[in-house]
Design a protein that fits this description.
The protein has helices at residues 4-35, 57-64, 68-74, 157-165, 218-224, 266-275, 284-293, and strands at 38-39, 42-43, 46-50, 88-92, 95-96, 104-108, 113-118, 121-131, 140-149, 153-154, 173-174, 185-189, 195-197, 208-210, 214-216, 233-237, 241-246, 249-254, 299-300. The chain is globular, with a radius of gyration of 21 Å. It is α+β, with helices and mostly antiparallel strands.
Length: 303
């Protein structure tokens, strides 16, 4: 058994090392945040969707990456509207891509979008589900540490305790199959307990419903999985305001502050406009309305 004094010195050294690592991670994330401030890439489009039997605003919004309230507002519908087969809906799922990486995965938490970058361009863009308010998804710079198909879910103690509190059956392990919440693909991050995975509840995508993990539609994670290797960089950002250009048009996208990290965004917008020399291009009245509504889609604010 190691003497207490030696053990204490070791604990102190470990604590200092962890603080240094946290500082380096925070600095890297901060640099990426600054780099991602202005976007030059727009994904998504405006189109008409024909409602199919069994569709709901929740399921449609989840598949295309549009908030339920935004989708309802775009179509002059109530939040809980009942849809009819063959009904036509206007979909606008345009998003500005954070300019944060040359290669790897970037996830912007307020935006609920995952981007897979190659040579500085987002080649794939997928809506995701993220951690609920009291179980937030962490920000920072990580790597893909585990890549596994048909994973076994070893239920964390914290989730077991939640099951117990809610009167549910307490499970310690869930084998692969139709009842496994991880779906068929697991990309474990270099932070223990967190990963990118599929789901058996596709309608939960584009919401804050997880225990901190990043959840993808089964079809999307199946497309992403073969493109990702162990060691791939993963950057989790927290940017609720995005400004960018597409051609000669200027776009602004604003999301609610789900984790209460960025309460004030107007000063940031004004700083961005000044730094990019866009004062003559932006319509401030439109921008103010977008900041107020926080609908989470990229809107044209060109004067």
């Amino acid at each position: 058994m190691r003497p207490r004094s030696t053990r204490n010195r070791t604990v102190n050294r470990v604590a200092i090392l962890l603080l240094l690592l946290a500082g380096l991670c925070g600095a890297a994330a901060s640099r990426a945040e600054q780099r991602s401030a202005f976007s030059h890439q727009l994904v998504g489009r405006e189109f008409t969707y024909v409602v199919e039997p069994g569709d709901s605003l929740t399921a449609i919004g989840a598949r295309f990456g549009v908030g339920i309230s935004t989708l309802a507002a775009l179509n002059n519908l109530a939040y809980n509207a009942h849809l009819k087969p063959a009904q036509e809906l206007h979909i606008d799922n345009r998003h500005l891509v954070p300019r944060a990486a040359d290669d790897g995965i970037v996830i912007n938490i307020p935006q609920r979008m995952l981007y897979f970058f190659t040579q500085g361009q987002a080649r794939r863009a997928f809506p995701v589900a993220l951690g609920k308010e009291d179980w937030p998804t962490p920000s920072g710079e990580f790597k893909i540490a585990v890549k596994e198909e048909n994973p076994v879910w070893d239920v964390p103690k914290s989730i077991q305790e939640e099951m117990r509190r809610e009167g549910k059956e307490v499970k310690t392990c869930v084998p692969p199959g139709p009842d496994n919440p991880l779906g068929k693909h697991w990309l474990g991050l270099s932070i223990t307990g967190y990963g990118i995975h599929g789901t058996i509840a596709p309608a939960s995508i584009y919401q804050f419903q997880t225990h901190g993990c990043i959840r993808l539609h089964p079809d999307d994670v199946a497309e992403l999985f073969p493109a990702v290797e162990r060691g791939t960089q993963v950057l989790l950002l927290y940017r609720r305001l995005l400004l960018g250009r597409s051609g000669d048009r200027l776009f602004l996208e604003v999301h609610p502050d789900i984790y209460r990290k960025q309460p004030s965004i107007e000063p940031e917008l004004r700083q961005l406009v000044d730094s990019e020399n866009l004062a003559s291009l932006i319509d401030w009245k439109l921008a103010a309305d977008i900041m107020r509504r926080q609908q989470g889609i990229a809107r044209d604010v060109t004067k």
